What we know:
Helix content is 48%, strand content 22%. The chain is of the alpha+beta class. The chain has five domains: 7-180, Beta-Lactamase (2-Layer Sandwich), CATH 3.30.450; 235-346, Beta-Lactamase, CATH 3.30.450; 354-435, Helix Hairpins (Orthogonal Bundle); 442-605, Histidine kinase-like ATPase, C-terminal domain (Heat Shock Protein 90); 616-747, Response regulator (Rossmann fold), CATH 3.40.50.2300. Helix 16 (407-438) packs across helix 20 and helix 23 packs parallel to helix 24. The model is unreliable at 1-9, 15-27, 40-60, 558-562 and 609-613 (pLDDT under 50).
Amino acid sequence: MNEYPTDSNIIEYMLTLLNISDHADGDPDFLSTIGNLKAASSVQPLPAMLEEHSDHVPNGIIRFMNQMPGGFFIYHADDKEQIIYVNQALLRIFQCETAEEFRRLTGNSFKGMVHPEDLSSVEESIRKQIAQSKYDLDYVEYRIIRRDGEIRWIEDYGHFVHSQSIGDIFYVFISDATEKRQRQLTEQHAMIKNATAENELKLRTLIESYDEERRLIYQEHLRRLEVIEGLSINYESILYVDLDSDTILPYRLSVRTEQVFQDPNRSRGLRWYTQDYVSTWVHPEDRQLVANATDPDYIRAKLSENKTYYINYRIISSGETQYLQLRVVNVGNNARISQIVIGYRRVDDEILQEMKQHKALQEALDQAKTANNTKDTFLSNMSHDMRTPLNAIFGYTALAKKYLDDASMVDSYLDKINVAGRQLLDMIEQILEISWMESKDIYLKESPCSLVDIMNEVRMTIQPQAEDKKITLHVDLSGLQQSDVYSDHEKLTQILLNLAGNAVKYTEANGRIDLIAARKEQLPNDHAVYQFTVQDTGIGISQDFLQHIFEPFQRERNTTFSGIYGTGLGLTIVKNVVETMNGTISADSTPGQGSTFTVTLTLRQQSSPSAPDGSIDHTHALLVGRKILLVDDNEINLEIETELLQELGFCIETAPDGLQAIEKLQASTPGEYAFILMDIQMPVMDGRKAAEAIRRLEDPVLSHIPIIALSANAFESDKRLSTESGMNAHLTKPIDVPILLETIARVVPADS
Length: 752
């Protein structure tokens, strides 16, 4: 048998067990005190030493343990289970007057404390509970044999702890449960004695109910201990508070909370503790918050609603602001809220993350407000700018009706109506375009094309507008060298037309616009860097606005610009398309002198020059007089489209929906119709379903007839869906005759 530990050892065990030594790091006075206590205990009995040095025992450890109403002991968690410490209450339970008597009675081991008949089951139960418990807790009942030979029942609440200095140990709280056990047995015997065969089932049910009640009580005990242990894992300070008696039992203390408990002349009431803690540590702005949260009346009110609540607050430590959380938990098992646990933990990271998220949300809100304001401005501008061409259309229409007998006047007014309509259509198309960009519904169709043809197409489109303002338009292709490349013809043309159109808008009469295309750098694998420049002598752009020129809904407002219509979306669209093509765009301008926009793209060159496009005029000539099936449910559209197509020399047959179009096609002879112009949105059967049905026809000539979609739906997704349904091309309303003829020449065989 190992020698029973000295009082000096006991103090050391207590310090280790309660982690008191952790708070003493770097404190010479505290370490000196501990040394004095150990030295004194080596030559003095424990009671005498405690009496002389009571003011120096940290938190009254030994005094507290010996004055506990229940038994308390510590033993090694090994095969011998040697006892390290017992308090006075446990000696009384075993009817021992001294520790020496207890050692002789039990052999100074936990094995010797337990009745031999109960030992095996008790040790097995402890092992299973520790293995399954999240917080290393156990509860057992067993018998003991006292010094006088009397057998008593014990309730045992144990906690397994690993200590660096003394190894694995159990510390245990016990209480005498003999009377409770006898009462239970008496009640059971009485019930059995009075039971009859008729009520045996009822009796068994009552006994099972009683056992369930005991099980629930046991679980409640464990739950309460686990709450405390669970808090201690994450919380730097844990206080057990009895509100009825207004007493505090510190379970774990931080430097801050320990400092408040060091005054031996103060009682351990919750209010005085809160007052000292708040005044010493809490940020002035949060003191009332903490005081209210720990007021007993407030605690009872809050815990009557929920089992727990918390607050976040700030403290001042060494001049630094830190964030803490105070959590209050109800650990009692009765209706009156009296037993609570208060935990304190650092939450700096959590609070800082919340602040970061709040800042991000605020920034997002600010951006949303800015975007909404920008869009409100845009809608206001659009309301103004769209009314200008509309007023022109209505006004010139009224004037044309007034001068019906004057053909030259009517023709002039119709030209102006056409210009106003084009302006209005441009605005609508730009709004749709930006919607494509925002939905990321944009894709590239790379195909062989000629940069010379694209530049000439832009020149021919812009030339009439330039001539109307007496602007000189010059195209420079001298630096192109190799002009046959692979690119998205439509997108590249769109970029240059938009830039050239802006140049015409913002260049005054007798000005000059230069369109320049050049190959700047030859790259490996048949790639080259091409640069496209649109330069004008217009009114220019201020340096402040130049920084925002590619942002949506932006228009510079001054007296010079006030008479120019627009959405403020054109350059945003250009930038998005250029970036989709993996290119860059830049702008340079001087107010009063002009602006220069430069687009740089990397394009793959064709190995040999592309063959010239088929002649539009030739294809058109071959199709003149041929029959076209025009499918549209709108009578006005049908009338306008019929007139335009008849002027081009086609014979027109119409159908109001997709189903009737299929019926007319099936009733025709193969080759009777040169092609079909099909609207998309129609009743009975829409255009895409009709196209799918046509492609499934058994007649190979009818099933392969060219189908061109003619629709108000202008999104990229609409065009893609038309292609997927079997249509050969997709045109948007209103009909642009040159584009229509180019599309016909591309998709309709000349000999069809």
